[in-house]
Design goal:
By secondary structure, the chain is α/β, with parallel strands linked by helices. The protein is built from 13 helices and 11 strands. The longest helix has 17 residues.
Length: 297
């Protein structure tokens, strides 16, 4: 009996588990599945395409065995490969940070428009609150490399902040040599200082009990709860404190762009206006759902 190649064994696994894989990873086909496996072995310094040609000699530490075990556990592919594509760039991710998603790209697009429209001739002080992987502020830095005089990325999680630092290092070659970013481990804007022109943030905005039914099981199982959830009882107080900090530290005419839960944005908008913001617009995502707040001081 002829031995199978790794490529043949990978295809056999995909076909035998196709219903499960399609349910767990919607839209995936074998071509994408094979590419993801190649990316997985590339993390260990192997050439995926060449590796697929080798004979499969199964053992418990074989990369194919490890890959398929993770698939059967429904681990998100971005965590398996430690890479997520966001706004024209790839970012290192692991389970200490949220997986950057396409809807958050709209926040980057809106921030980019604000930079062009309102701050075109002025170097900015930008703060990314709850930076996670750093995908938001890094995407803006790469799109507007000379727009900023100062950039701060903060997160309450030191593990997440280390991922943001790693991604800054990975993309630093694309930025001006004098560009520097300060990384601060703090809760929201507790340690903020100086007048900020632009705040971008994707904070935890899901009510742990009231909104739980709408959270995908893979998101709940694998992504960091600290970045996802707030307790129902503390929800309003948490955002009232946050908006008060934003109001305190934004320069007059400064703006904040925040992603949020569609069911709560109207309420949060009224809260922000009552705290003194000049304007608070609710912006839509690509599916036409209310997704973002744009606050003007």
């Amino acid at each position: 009996m002829a031995l199978k190649t790794i490529a043949e064994e990978l295809e056999f696994f995909f076909k035998s588990q196709q219903e499960f894989i399609s349910e767990s990873y919607p839209g995936i086909n074998f071509s994408r599945f094979k590419r993801d496996f190649c990316d997985f072995v590339a993390v260990n310094g192997l050439d995926g395409e060449e590796y697929l040609k080798q004979v499969y000699l199964g053992h418990k530490n074989h990369p194919l065995k490890k890959f398929t075990e993770k698939i059967l556990l429904k681990v998100p592919l971005q965590y398996i490969n430690q890479e997520a594509y966001f706004y024209q760039s790839s970012f290192f991710v692991n389970q200490n940070v949220l997986i950057p998603r396409s809807e958050t790209e709209v926040l980057v697009e809106k921030a980019s428009q604000i930079i062009k429209q309102y701050f075109n001739s002025k170097p900015l002080f930008m703060w990314d609150v709850g930076t996670g992987s750093g995908a938001i502020f890094l995407s803006l830095l790469m799109e507007h490399p000379y727009a900023f005089k100062k950039v701060v990325a903060s997160d309450v999680s030191s593990e997440a902040l280390n991922i943001a630092k790693k991604n800054f290092f990975l993309h630093e070659y694309r930025l001006p040599k004098k560009m520097s970013v300060e990384f601060i481990c703090c809760d929201r804007l507790v340690d903020a200082r100086g007048g900020i022109d632009l705040i971008v943030t994707n904070p935890p905005y899901i009510k742990r009990d009231a909104d739980m039914a709408g959270v995908h099981h893979q998101v709940h199982r694998y992504e960091p709860h600290l970045a996802l959830y707030l307790s129902d009882a503390n929800y309003d107080r948490w955002f009232e404190e946050f908006f008060s900090q934003i109001m305190q530290h934004l320069n007059p005419g400064g703006m904040c762009l925040m992603e949020g839960q569609s069911e709560h944005l109207q309420h949060l908008s009224h809260m922000a206006l009552n705290l003194g913001f000049k304007k608070c617009d609710i912006l839509l995502d690509l599916c036409g759902r209310e997704r973002f707040l744009q606050l003007l001081k």
